[in-house]
Specification:
With 331 residues, the chain is of the alpha/beta class. The protein has eleven helices and 13 strands. The chain has one domain: NAD(P)-binding Rossmann-like Domain (Rossmann fold, 3-Layer(aba) Sandwich), CATH 3.40.50.720.
Length: 331
Protein backbone atom coordinates (compact mmCIF):
# COMPACT_ATOMS: atom_id res chain seq x y z
CA UNK A 1 0.00 0.00 0.00
CA UNK A 2 1.43 3.44 -0.93
CA UNK A 3 2.27 5.78 1.92
CA UNK A 4 -0.01 8.43 3.39
CA UNK A 5 1.42 11.95 3.61
CA UNK A 6 0.47 13.66 6.89
CA UNK A 7 1.20 17.38 7.19
CA UNK A 8 1.51 18.88 10.67
CA UNK A 9 3.01 15.56 11.78
CA UNK A 10 4.92 17.26 14.62
CA UNK A 11 1.67 18.83 15.78
CA UNK A 12 -0.90 17.61 18.25
CA UNK A 13 -3.50 15.99 15.99
CA UNK A 14 -1.05 15.18 13.20
CA UNK A 15 1.22 13.15 15.48
CA UNK A 16 -1.74 11.17 16.83
CA UNK A 17 -3.09 10.48 13.32
CA UNK A 18 0.37 9.33 12.21
CA UNK A 19 0.61 7.02 15.21
CA UNK A 20 -2.79 5.45 14.44
CA UNK A 21 -1.86 4.83 10.79
CA UNK A 22 1.47 3.28 11.80
CA UNK A 23 -0.32 1.04 14.32
CA UNK A 24 -2.41 -0.26 11.41
CA UNK A 25 0.75 -1.24 9.56
CA UNK A 26 0.75 1.68 7.15
CA UNK A 27 3.69 3.72 5.89
CA UNK A 28 3.57 7.40 6.84
CA UNK A 29 5.52 10.34 5.47
CA UNK A 30 5.29 13.13 8.04
CA UNK A 31 5.77 16.74 6.97
CA UNK A 32 6.16 19.78 9.25
CA UNK A 33 8.22 22.96 9.42
CA UNK A 34 8.56 22.64 13.23
CA UNK A 35 8.00 26.36 13.78
CA UNK A 36 8.31 28.07 17.15
CA UNK A 37 4.67 29.15 17.63
CA UNK A 38 4.90 26.93 20.72
CA UNK A 39 7.57 24.67 22.24
CA UNK A 40 9.81 23.22 19.53
CA UNK A 41 10.98 20.64 22.10
CA UNK A 42 7.43 19.31 22.46
CA UNK A 43 7.21 18.92 18.68
CA UNK A 44 10.59 17.16 18.56
CA UNK A 45 9.46 14.84 21.37
CA UNK A 46 6.32 13.90 19.41
CA UNK A 47 8.47 13.19 16.34
CA UNK A 48 10.87 11.09 18.41
CA UNK A 49 7.93 8.86 19.41
CA UNK A 50 6.93 8.44 15.77
CA UNK A 51 10.52 7.77 14.67
CA UNK A 52 10.50 4.57 16.75
CA UNK A 53 8.51 3.08 13.85
CA UNK A 54 10.65 2.26 10.82
CA UNK A 55 7.66 2.87 8.51
CA UNK A 56 7.72 6.55 9.47
CA UNK A 57 9.86 9.06 7.62
CA UNK A 58 9.96 12.79 8.21
CA UNK A 59 10.33 15.77 5.88
CA UNK A 60 11.08 19.12 7.50
CA UNK A 61 9.86 21.81 5.12
CA UNK A 62 7.49 24.78 5.06
CA UNK A 63 4.60 23.87 2.75
CA UNK A 64 3.95 27.59 2.18
CA UNK A 65 7.20 27.59 0.11
CA UNK A 66 6.07 25.72 -2.99
CA UNK A 67 9.54 25.34 -4.57
CA UNK A 68 11.01 23.91 -1.35
CA UNK A 69 7.94 21.68 -0.93
CA UNK A 70 8.28 20.20 -4.41
CA UNK A 71 12.00 19.54 -3.89
CA UNK A 72 11.38 17.91 -0.52
CA UNK A 73 8.72 15.54 -1.91
CA UNK A 74 10.62 14.59 -5.05
CA UNK A 75 11.06 10.82 -5.30
CA UNK A 76 8.67 10.11 -2.42
CA UNK A 77 5.71 7.86 -3.18
CA UNK A 78 2.36 8.50 -1.50
CA UNK A 79 -1.25 8.18 -2.54
CA UNK A 80 -3.35 9.85 0.16
CA UNK A 81 -2.85 13.20 1.87
CA UNK A 82 -4.08 14.16 5.34
CA UNK A 83 -3.41 17.89 5.55
CA UNK A 84 -3.49 18.91 9.22
CA UNK A 85 -0.65 21.43 9.22
CA UNK A 86 -1.71 25.06 9.74
CA UNK A 87 -0.99 28.15 11.77
CA UNK A 88 -3.35 27.50 14.66
CA UNK A 89 -4.80 29.72 17.36
CA UNK A 90 -7.56 32.34 17.31
CA UNK A 91 -5.81 34.87 19.53
CA UNK A 92 -2.41 34.79 17.80
CA UNK A 93 -4.12 35.62 14.48
CA UNK A 94 -4.80 39.10 15.87
CA UNK A 95 -1.08 39.62 16.61
CA UNK A 96 0.43 38.00 13.53
CA UNK A 97 -2.08 37.95 10.65
CA UNK A 98 0.48 37.37 7.89
CA UNK A 99 1.51 34.01 9.37
CA UNK A 100 -2.06 32.79 8.84
CA UNK A 101 -2.28 33.90 5.23
CA UNK A 102 1.03 32.20 4.43
CA UNK A 103 0.38 28.91 6.21
CA UNK A 104 -3.38 28.53 5.89
CA UNK A 105 -4.05 30.04 2.45
CA UNK A 106 -0.81 29.75 0.47
CA UNK A 107 0.05 26.48 2.21
CA UNK A 108 -3.39 24.97 1.60
CA UNK A 109 -3.21 25.86 -2.10
CA UNK A 110 0.29 24.36 -2.36
CA UNK A 111 -0.88 21.08 -0.81
CA UNK A 112 -3.86 20.95 -3.19
CA UNK A 113 -1.46 21.43 -6.10
CA UNK A 114 0.62 18.50 -4.81
CA UNK A 115 -2.56 16.41 -4.61
CA UNK A 116 -3.66 17.44 -8.11
CA UNK A 117 -0.34 16.74 -9.81
CA UNK A 118 0.13 13.46 -7.93
CA UNK A 119 -3.48 12.48 -8.70
CA UNK A 120 -3.95 11.65 -5.02
CA UNK A 121 -6.81 9.25 -4.31
CA UNK A 122 -8.01 11.31 -1.35
CA UNK A 123 -7.32 14.64 0.38
CA UNK A 124 -8.56 15.12 3.94
CA UNK A 125 -7.94 18.53 5.51
CA UNK A 126 -8.46 20.37 8.77
CA UNK A 127 -11.00 23.16 8.90
CA UNK A 128 -12.27 24.49 12.25
CA UNK A 129 -15.40 25.02 14.31
CA UNK A 130 -14.32 28.68 14.44
CA UNK A 131 -15.83 29.16 10.94
CA UNK A 132 -19.25 29.35 12.64
CA UNK A 133 -18.26 32.71 14.12
CA UNK A 134 -21.04 34.32 16.09
CA UNK A 135 -23.74 31.83 15.04
CA UNK A 136 -26.19 31.69 17.91
CA UNK A 137 -28.21 28.69 16.74
CA UNK A 138 -26.96 25.59 18.54
CA UNK A 139 -25.82 23.00 17.73
CA UNK A 140 -23.74 24.20 14.76
CA UNK A 141 -24.74 22.38 11.57
CA UNK A 142 -22.69 22.02 8.38
CA UNK A 143 -25.73 23.43 6.55
CA UNK A 144 -25.46 26.72 8.49
CA UNK A 145 -24.12 29.80 6.71
CA UNK A 146 -20.60 30.68 7.82
CA UNK A 147 -20.08 34.12 6.33
CA UNK A 148 -19.28 36.07 9.51
CA UNK A 149 -15.99 34.86 11.02
CA UNK A 150 -14.89 36.57 14.24
CA UNK A 151 -11.14 36.03 13.72
CA UNK A 152 -8.70 35.95 10.81
CA UNK A 153 -7.94 32.32 11.71
CA UNK A 154 -11.60 31.47 11.13
CA UNK A 155 -11.62 33.44 7.86
CA UNK A 156 -8.61 31.50 6.54
CA UNK A 157 -10.28 28.18 7.38
CA UNK A 158 -13.49 29.22 5.59
CA UNK A 159 -11.35 30.30 2.61
CA UNK A 160 -9.66 26.88 2.60
CA UNK A 161 -13.07 25.23 2.27
CA UNK A 162 -13.87 27.44 -0.73
CA UNK A 163 -10.51 26.76 -2.41
CA UNK A 164 -11.03 23.02 -1.85
CA UNK A 165 -14.50 23.22 -3.41
CA UNK A 166 -12.95 24.74 -6.53
CA UNK A 167 -10.34 21.96 -6.79
CA UNK A 168 -12.98 19.28 -6.24
CA UNK A 169 -15.09 20.83 -9.02
CA UNK A 170 -12.31 21.49 -11.56
CA UNK A 171 -10.11 18.44 -11.01
CA UNK A 172 -12.57 15.97 -9.38
CA UNK A 173 -10.12 15.63 -6.48
CA UNK A 174 -11.94 13.79 -3.64
CA UNK A 175 -11.79 15.89 -0.49
CA UNK A 176 -13.17 15.97 3.03
CA UNK A 177 -12.90 19.07 5.23
CA UNK A 178 -13.19 18.55 8.98
CA UNK A 179 -14.40 21.27 11.32
CA UNK A 180 -12.70 20.25 14.56
CA UNK A 181 -14.25 21.20 17.91
CA UNK A 182 -11.83 21.93 20.83
CA UNK A 183 -9.53 18.92 20.69
CA UNK A 184 -7.66 17.91 23.86
CA UNK A 185 -5.66 15.01 25.23
CA UNK A 186 -2.10 13.71 25.72
CA UNK A 187 0.59 15.53 23.70
CA UNK A 188 -1.79 18.52 23.43
CA UNK A 189 -0.95 22.15 22.65
CA UNK A 190 0.50 24.42 25.37
CA UNK A 191 -1.61 27.38 24.18
CA UNK A 192 -4.89 25.55 24.84
CA UNK A 193 -6.94 26.20 27.99
CA UNK A 194 -6.61 22.71 29.47
CA UNK A 195 -2.79 22.81 29.34
CA UNK A 196 -2.68 26.39 30.68
CA UNK A 197 -4.98 25.49 33.58
CA UNK A 198 -3.02 22.33 34.50
CA UNK A 199 0.27 24.23 34.34
CA UNK A 200 -1.02 27.00 36.62
CA UNK A 201 -2.60 24.58 39.11
CA UNK A 202 0.60 22.55 39.49
CA UNK A 203 2.61 25.80 39.85
CA UNK A 204 0.06 27.06 42.47
CA UNK A 205 -0.68 30.12 40.33
CA UNK A 206 -4.09 31.65 39.59
CA UNK A 207 -5.88 30.71 36.37
CA UNK A 208 -7.51 33.22 34.03
CA UNK A 209 -11.07 32.19 33.24
CA UNK A 210 -12.26 34.12 30.20
CA UNK A 211 -15.86 34.99 29.43
CA UNK A 212 -16.39 35.32 33.21
CA UNK A 213 -16.57 31.51 33.16
CA UNK A 214 -19.83 31.62 31.19
CA UNK A 215 -18.52 29.79 28.15
CA UNK A 216 -19.33 26.35 26.78
CA UNK A 217 -17.18 24.19 24.53
CA UNK A 218 -17.66 20.91 22.70
CA UNK A 219 -14.49 19.28 24.07
CA UNK A 220 -13.39 16.36 21.90
CA UNK A 221 -10.84 13.77 23.02
CA UNK A 222 -8.02 13.33 20.53
CA UNK A 223 -8.54 9.55 20.05
CA UNK A 224 -12.12 10.22 18.92
CA UNK A 225 -10.90 12.90 16.51
CA UNK A 226 -8.30 10.51 15.06
CA UNK A 227 -10.96 7.84 14.51
CA UNK A 228 -12.97 10.35 12.47
CA UNK A 229 -9.95 11.57 10.47
CA UNK A 230 -8.90 8.02 9.58
CA UNK A 231 -12.46 7.06 8.62
CA UNK A 232 -12.55 10.01 6.21
CA UNK A 233 -9.17 9.05 4.76
CA UNK A 234 -10.39 5.47 4.24
CA UNK A 235 -13.61 6.63 2.53
CA UNK A 236 -13.06 9.27 -0.19
CA UNK A 237 -16.00 11.49 -1.10
CA UNK A 238 -17.76 9.87 -4.08
CA UNK A 239 -17.91 11.71 -7.41
CA UNK A 240 -21.55 10.79 -8.04
CA UNK A 241 -23.21 14.16 -8.57
CA UNK A 242 -25.26 13.77 -5.39
CA UNK A 243 -25.31 16.55 -2.80
CA UNK A 244 -22.79 15.92 -0.02
CA UNK A 245 -22.63 17.14 3.58
CA UNK A 246 -21.94 20.86 3.26
CA UNK A 247 -23.89 21.16 0.00
CA UNK A 248 -21.32 20.30 -2.69
CA UNK A 249 -22.17 18.20 -5.73
CA UNK A 250 -18.46 17.77 -6.47
CA UNK A 251 -16.52 15.06 -4.55
CA UNK A 252 -16.16 17.33 -1.50
CA UNK A 253 -17.72 16.88 1.94
CA UNK A 254 -17.65 19.03 5.05
CA UNK A 255 -18.13 17.44 8.45
CA UNK A 256 -18.30 18.67 12.01
CA UNK A 257 -16.15 16.43 14.16
CA UNK A 258 -16.86 16.95 17.83
CA UNK A 259 -18.11 15.20 20.92
CA UNK A 260 -21.73 16.35 20.41
CA UNK A 261 -21.81 17.62 24.01
CA UNK A 262 -21.45 21.27 25.00
CA UNK A 263 -19.76 21.49 28.41
CA UNK A 264 -19.50 24.46 30.74
CA UNK A 265 -15.98 25.82 31.13
CA UNK A 266 -16.39 25.75 34.91
CA UNK A 267 -17.17 22.01 34.81
CA UNK A 268 -14.00 21.41 32.79
CA UNK A 269 -12.00 23.31 35.42
CA UNK A 270 -13.62 21.26 38.22
CA UNK A 271 -12.44 18.06 36.50
CA UNK A 272 -8.89 19.39 36.03
CA UNK A 273 -8.73 20.39 39.71
CA UNK A 274 -9.88 16.91 40.69
CA UNK A 275 -7.32 15.22 38.43
CA UNK A 276 -4.52 17.51 39.67
CA UNK A 277 -5.55 16.97 43.29
CA UNK A 278 -5.80 20.66 44.19
CA UNK A 279 -8.07 23.65 43.74
CA UNK A 280 -7.31 26.58 41.46
CA UNK A 281 -7.58 30.25 42.28
CA UNK A 282 -9.95 31.40 39.51
CA UNK A 283 -9.69 34.93 38.15
CA UNK A 284 -12.74 35.78 36.06
CA UNK A 285 -11.83 37.74 32.93
CA UNK A 286 -13.92 39.28 30.10
CA UNK A 287 -14.28 37.62 26.70
CA UNK A 288 -11.20 37.89 24.50
CA UNK A 289 -11.36 39.41 21.00
CA UNK A 290 -12.15 36.79 18.37
CA UNK A 291 -13.53 34.26 20.87
CA UNK A 292 -17.03 32.82 20.71
CA UNK A 293 -19.22 32.19 23.75
CA UNK A 294 -20.46 28.67 22.91
CA UNK A 295 -19.59 25.80 20.59
CA UNK A 296 -21.66 22.67 20.05
CA UNK A 297 -21.27 20.25 17.14
CA UNK A 298 -24.09 18.64 15.22
CA UNK A 299 -22.24 15.49 14.06
CA UNK A 300 -25.21 13.83 12.36
CA UNK A 301 -23.66 14.03 8.87
CA UNK A 302 -20.44 12.15 9.73
CA UNK A 303 -22.48 9.73 11.90
CA UNK A 304 -24.78 8.99 8.98
CA UNK A 305 -22.07 8.65 6.32
CA UNK A 306 -19.22 7.01 8.23
CA UNK A 307 -20.69 5.74 11.50
CA UNK A 308 -18.60 8.17 13.55
CA UNK A 309 -19.50 8.02 17.25
CA UNK A 310 -17.26 9.67 19.87
CA UNK A 311 -16.89 7.56 23.00
CA UNK A 312 -14.83 9.65 25.47
CA UNK A 313 -16.51 12.03 27.91
CA UNK A 314 -14.47 14.82 29.51
CA UNK A 315 -14.82 12.98 32.84
CA UNK A 316 -12.77 10.18 31.25
CA UNK A 317 -10.56 12.25 28.97
CA UNK A 318 -9.34 15.00 31.32
CA UNK A 319 -7.71 12.59 33.84
CA UNK A 320 -5.90 10.93 30.89
CA UNK A 321 -4.55 14.32 29.81
CA UNK A 322 -3.49 15.24 33.35
CA UNK A 323 -1.78 11.84 33.84
CA UNK A 324 0.19 12.39 30.63
CA UNK A 325 1.01 15.99 31.67
CA UNK A 326 2.40 14.78 35.02
CA UNK A 327 4.53 12.11 33.36
CA UNK A 328 5.83 14.37 30.60
CA UNK A 329 6.88 17.06 33.08
CA UNK A 330 8.09 14.62 35.74
CA UNK A 331 5.64 15.89 38.34
Amino acid sequence: MPATLVTGAAGFIGSHVSRRLLARGETVIGLDNVNDYYSVQLKRDRLAELAKEERFSFVEVDFADHAALERALEGRDFDRIIHLGAQAGVRYSIENPRAYVQSNLVGHLNMLEVARHRQASNFVYASSSSVYGGNDTLPFRVEDRVDHPLSLYAATKKADELISETYAHLYRLPQTGLRFFTVYGPWGRPDMAMWLFAKAIFAVEPIQVFGEGNMRRDFTYVDDIVTGVVACSDNPAPDDGAEKAGGSRAPHRLYNIGNHRSEELTHMIDLIEEACGRKAERRLMPMQPGDVRDTFADISAIQRDLGFAPTTTIAEGIPKFVDWYRTYHGL
